């Protein structure tokens, strides 16, 4: 009867939901019927349904009222009506966390689970496990063990799955049931085998060796259940991934052998696992792709869908591996299932030739309106990939994107489009103007704040450099008039950027900003006032520093420095140079292959990492008075080979006049404890070792840290690049591996480590300058130096650019790290801050003949950074 | 009670149903007693301490009993009261060999008798002085003294010595309970009159 209601409900769109107007208090009142005898099973089941409905609608039941209803429900156990009993089990599960004393039904449930009625037994097991906490578990352990090996599949499955849930809070008890689970794993029933395997895996999953053994055991004997196969495939591929996926592993052989399994499900799972293994090459992919190809012509839509979806994924990284399926994919383009068709087309867009693009785009636009946002995003991703591959096609692709932008769609979809358009604009300067004007049109009617502010930021950055900047002002100012405060603030910043770069427009920008000073919102007013004052000075340097290129300091660092300043006020004005820099540039750099929706945000993490170091170092008395931490090397360098006695990794910390080397040490010998560990360092340049801060003790496998403090070279301050030879010194005390008892007597020992390099990059922090030219002018040519070098070993411009960026550790600006095709000259623009807080900018002109010739021009507000750069390049 | 039910019990086709609460301290033998009263093919083989309660059914010559066999462990005793309202009769089981906890049993009994859902009802109470087979068991007379049963004035009560394992003394108790329940209840009698 309930079923019928549901169905009708679906058909008529909710109009006839019999539970629609339920009132909690009325339903709970009705539940008193449960106390009456004799019991009317139909009526009671209906009331229970109502209670469950309410709970599932998110209705809050107070503890008292819930408990009252629960106890009334317990009386229904005297009825033997099967439907009513099943409703009781459901109610028990739903109310187990809302009502008190739910353990009252324990004996009733154990009775049902061991009783004669098979229909009751499975559900009773599940309900019982739901109400049992770790303290009560012992009491039912015996029943659970019996149920796991019960010959009725539903009972065994229920017990196994419930055990899996119990594992979360009562691992140690459930662990004792593996023998029973093992027995269940050899069951002939496919579900029981699957569930048993699941439990076994989860009990052992923290023990790699045990998992390996389990996999090899089950793969040797073979399994009945396709579900179990699928699971083992997943476990195996996870294991492979952690092993760094060597392809000759028996695990891989197993997965590959599953491609020949008789169940489609297993075949698909294996193919999907292979495709998703990181670092899979064409050879490994081929068999997986060919089974997917077969699925493409399956009569089952689900299989076709799975196949084309997976191929689509493969095509992102290995388009050539999928070309073999092009014919099958072409057949799917007209599939009546639009999801399949979309995926087929977007896959073809990645694998097909440039000539097929127009045809495919036309095809897809014919049903774009019929597919869901999720698939539209897939289309956008495909277009974005195409733009990178065939820059010449950008006009047709852009037009397609603009059409999509104008249509209805959710945030993710619109964001994907905007991201894609922006990346096209950045790659192709010819498309900039059209792109910007379409985006302008979009923000005229854009409900997504994030997108609007993003576009405003882009307009401020790119608009002033176009031929006719004034045409964007109207769109931007409209935002100030029409939108809410976040967008208004973004618009004000964009306006200021036009004023800062374009003298003709400045007077009218000033007028507009003056109007914004009256805004209702604080932030908008503050920004307008600030920009107005800066612009009125009419100084290029100010514009560059405060409008065009924003703050590069770390925000938490600034907050702390300011707080410190207010606590200890001084005569000197606050010095922004004393604030640590943000460790990662503010603007994210997108790499080619990542899909546009996967936006990563590493900034916050990086900031906290440096924060942590700063705090740790500040706690060491020897390091007091070093000033603020300028930079910590992004990744520790290993000074030992892997799998040696001791594992030593070094992180370099740079201060204004000093460097601290932090050595994180681990002792992998279980029969030794090390004490008083230091790393002695011998520099090649005139660095001076000031002191060693030893690690007190290094017991087996417990990491410890020691430090070495050095002063930077004073006589020749440009000689910052240096090699240190390193030697670890310590006292060894032997100890008993089993008891951990340590000898009192020890002996001195030494251990030679690899050399440690300090390079110019350790003295420079990356900084993003959104407008390099303005920054270049701002710094001025007082300390400019220029030199020309020949890079004799380098054969291409890309290679040269990559090497320079890496070597100097500076930030490439205005996408100048991208070398356009078929050109033999290129200019690389780099920005950074030198230790001590001085901006350093480098312009490097490259010319490719047979080898690469490089002219380096460096500017800074001080002489030293410029000298350091030139000395290090030469 | 629906008309059909009344008819069928009038014609003796269906026995009248009675709700019984089975109370008493843990380990006193409640579950063992109830189990013994069930038809031999429905009896459980091994008996474990009850957690919460369990519902059991057995029949006497003219009644059908639905027993709420409650758990006697300390932390569950306060849950008994949830089931008082519907109880039409009470079986209270005492371990007659457990002298030490006789006071605890008395305390629980007094709390029961003073509960608002029980206090003013003429609800029959059957006491089983159980485990009479054990060597240090006291007599049922002694048990009734220790529990001050003579003070119960407003409810019919009866005490039987019993050995639940062999089943001795149980039938006597159930017969008494059947008689009292029929007396103190309307139901079928109303119809007969
Ligand atoms: N010797 C003897 N042992 C008995 C008798 N009745 C019960 N027992 C034993 O006493 C123990 C407890 O019996 P149960 O029936 O579980 O007691 P209970 O009152 O239900 O206990 P809870 O469920 O914990 O409240 C069991 O080991 C029985 O075998 C009896 O008359 N004589
Ligand atoms: Mg019991």
From TrEMBL, chain A:
Pfam families: Adaptin_N, Coatomer_g_Cpla, COP-gamma_platf. The keyword ATP-binding does not apply. Residues 24-538 form the Clathrin/coatomer adaptor adaptin-like N-terminal domain. Residues 1-21 are annotated as: Disordered. Residues 761-873 form the Coatomer subunit gamma C-terminal domain. Keywords: Cytoplasm, Cytoplasmic vesicle, ER-Golgi transport, Golgi apparatus, Membrane, Phosphoprotein, Protein transport, Repeat, Transport. GO terms for molecular function: structural molecule activity. Oligomeric complex that consists of at least the alpha, beta, beta', gamma, delta, epsilon and zeta subunits. Interacts with ZNF289/ARFGAP2 through its C-terminal appendage domain. Interacts with EGFR upon EGF treatment; interaction is essential for regulation of EGF-dependent nuclear transport of EGFR by retrograde trafficking from the Golgi to the ER. The coatomer interacts with KDEL receptors; the interaction is important for retrograde trafficking of KDEL-bearing proteins from the Golgi to the endoplasmic reticulum. Interacts with COPB1. Interacts with TMED10 (via C-terminus). This is Coatomer subunit gamma. The lineage of its organism: Eukaryota, Metazoa, Chordata, Craniata, Vertebrata.
From TrEMBL, chain B:
This is ADP-ribosylation factor-like protein 6. The lineage of its organism: Eukaryota, Metazoa, Chordata, Craniata, Vertebrata.
């Amino acid at each position: 009867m309930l079923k019928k209601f549901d169905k009708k409900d679906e058909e008529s769109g909710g109009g006839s939901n019999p539970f629609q107007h339920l009132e909690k208090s009325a339903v709970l009142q009705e539940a008193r019927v449960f106390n009456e005898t004799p019991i009317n099973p139909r009526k009671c089941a209906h009331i229970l349904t109502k209670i469950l409905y309410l709970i599932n609608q998110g209705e809050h039941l107070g503890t008292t009222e819930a408990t009252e209803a629960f106890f009334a429900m317990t009386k229904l156990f005297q009825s033997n009506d099967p439907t009513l009993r099943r409703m009781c089990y459901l109610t028990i599960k739903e109310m187990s966390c809302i009502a008190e004393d739910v353990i009252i039904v324990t004996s009733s449930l154990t009775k049902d689970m061991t009783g004669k009625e098979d229909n009751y037994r499975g559900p009773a097991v599940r309900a019982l496990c739901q109400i049992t906490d770790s303290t009560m578990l012992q009491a039912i352990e015996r029943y659970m063990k019996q149920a796991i090996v019960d010959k009725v599949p539903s009972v065994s499955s229920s017990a196994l799955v419930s055990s899996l849930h119990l594992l979360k809070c009562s691992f140690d008890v459930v662990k004792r049931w593996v023998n029973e689970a093992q027995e269940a794993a050899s069951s002939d029933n496919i579900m029981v085998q699957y569930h048993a395997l699941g439990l076994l895996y989860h009990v052992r999953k923290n023990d790699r060796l045990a998992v390996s053994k389990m996999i090899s055991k089950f793969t040797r004997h073979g399994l009945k259940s396709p579900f179990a196969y699928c699971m083992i495939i997943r476990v195996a591929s996870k294991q492979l991934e952690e092993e760094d996926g060597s392809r000759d592993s028996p695990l891989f052989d197993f997965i590959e052998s599953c491609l020949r399994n008789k169940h489609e499900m297993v075949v698909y799972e294996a193919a999907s696992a292979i495709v998703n293994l990181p670092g899979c090459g064409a050879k490994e992919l081929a068999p997986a792709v060919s089974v997917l190809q077969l699925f493409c012509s399956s009569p089952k839509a689900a299989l076709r869908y799975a196949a084309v979806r997976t191929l689509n994924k493969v095509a992102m990284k290995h388009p050539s591996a999928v070309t073999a399926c092009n014919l099958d994919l072409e057949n799917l383009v007209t599939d009546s299932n639009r999801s399949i068709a979309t995926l087929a087309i977007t896959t073809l867009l990645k694998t097909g030739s440039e000539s097929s693009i127009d045809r495919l785009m036309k095809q897809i636009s014919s049903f774009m309106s019929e597919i869901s946002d999720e698939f539209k995003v897939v289309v956008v991703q495909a277009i974005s990939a195409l733009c990178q591959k065939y820059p010449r096609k950008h006009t047709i692709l852009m037009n397609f994107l603009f059409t999509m932008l104008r249509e209805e769609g959710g945030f993710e979809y619109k964001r994907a489009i905007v991201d894609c358009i922006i990346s096209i604009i950045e790659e192709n300067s010819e498309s900039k103007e059209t792109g910007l004007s379409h985006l302008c049109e979009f923000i005229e009617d854009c409900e997504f704040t994030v997108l609007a502010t993003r576009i405003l930021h882009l307009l401020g950055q790119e608009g002033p450099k176009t031929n006719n900047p004034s045409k964007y002002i109207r769109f931007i100012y409209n935002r100030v008039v029409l939108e809410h405060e976040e967008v208004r603030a973004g618009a004000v910043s964009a306006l200021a950027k036009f004023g800062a770069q374009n003298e003709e427009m400045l007077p009218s920008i000033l007028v507009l900003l003056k109007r914004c000073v009256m805004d209702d919102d604080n932030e908008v007013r503050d920004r307008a006032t600030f920009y107005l004052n800066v612009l009125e000075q009419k100084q290029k340097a100010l514009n560059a520093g405060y409008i065009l290129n924003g703050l590069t300091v770390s925000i938490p660092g600034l907050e702390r420095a300011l707080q410190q300043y207010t606590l200890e006020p001084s005569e000197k004005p606050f010095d922004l140079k004393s604030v640590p820099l943000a460790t990662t540039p503010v603007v994210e750099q997108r790499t080619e292959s990542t899909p546009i929706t996967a936006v990563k945000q590493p900034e916050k993490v990086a900031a906290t990492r440096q924060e942590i170091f700063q705090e740790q170092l500040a706690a060491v008395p020897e390091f007091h008075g070093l000033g603020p931490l300028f930079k910590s090397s992004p990744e520790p360098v290993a000074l030992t080979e892997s799998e040696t006695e001791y594992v030593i990794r070094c992180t370099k910390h740079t201060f204004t006049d000093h460097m601290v080397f932090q050595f994180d040490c681990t002792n992998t010998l279980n029969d030794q404890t090390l004490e008083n560990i230091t790393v002695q360092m011998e520099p090649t340049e005139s660095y001076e070792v000031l002191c060693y801060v030893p690690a007190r003790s290094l017991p087996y496998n417990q990491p410890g840290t020691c430090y070495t403090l050095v002063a930077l070279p004073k006589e020749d301050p440009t000689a910052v690049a240096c090699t240190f030879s390193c030697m670890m010194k310590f006292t060894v005390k032997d100890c008993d591996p089993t008891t951990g008892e340590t000898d009192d007597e020890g002996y001195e020992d030494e251990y030679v480590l690899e050399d440690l390099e300090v390079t110019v990059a350790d003295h420079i922090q990356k900084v993003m300058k959104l407008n390099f030219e303005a920054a270049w002018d701002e710094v001025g040519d007082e300390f400019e130096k220029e030199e020309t070098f020949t890079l004799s070993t380098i054969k291409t411009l890309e290679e040269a650019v990559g090497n320079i960026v890496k070597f100097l550790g500076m930030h490439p600006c205005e996408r100048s790290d991208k070398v356009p095709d078929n050109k033999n000259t290129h200019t690389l623009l780099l920005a950074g801050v030198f230790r001590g807080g001085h901006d350093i900018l480098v312009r490097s002109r490259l010319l490719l003949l047979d080898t690469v010739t490089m002219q380096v021009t460096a500017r800074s507000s001080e002489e030293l950074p410029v000298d350091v750069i030139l000395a290090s390049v030469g | 009670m629906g008309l059909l039910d009344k008819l069928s019990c009038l014609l003796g086709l269906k026995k009248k149903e009675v709700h019984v609460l089975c109370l008493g301290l843990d380990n006193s033998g409640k579950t063992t007693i109830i189990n013994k009263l069930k038809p031999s093919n429905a009896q459980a083989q091994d008996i474990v301490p009850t957690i919460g309660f369990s519902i059991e059914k057995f029949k006497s010559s003219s009644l059908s009993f639905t027993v709420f066999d409650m758990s006697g462990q300390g932390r569950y005793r306060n849950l008994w009261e949830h089931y008082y309202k519907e109880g039409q009769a009470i079986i209270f089981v005492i371990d007659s060999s457990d002298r030490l906890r006789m006071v605890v049993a008395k305390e629980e009994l007094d709390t029961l008798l003073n509960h608002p859902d029980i206090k003013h009802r003429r609800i029959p109470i059957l006491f089983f002085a159980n485990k009479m087979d054990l060597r240090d068991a006291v007599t049922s007379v002694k048990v009734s003294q220790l529990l001050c049963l003579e003070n119960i004035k407003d409810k019919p009560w009866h005490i039987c010595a019993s050995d639940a394992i062999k089943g001795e003394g149980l039938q006597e108790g159930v017969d008494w309970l059947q008689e009292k329940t029929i007396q103190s209840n309307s139901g079928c009698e109303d119809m007969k009159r």
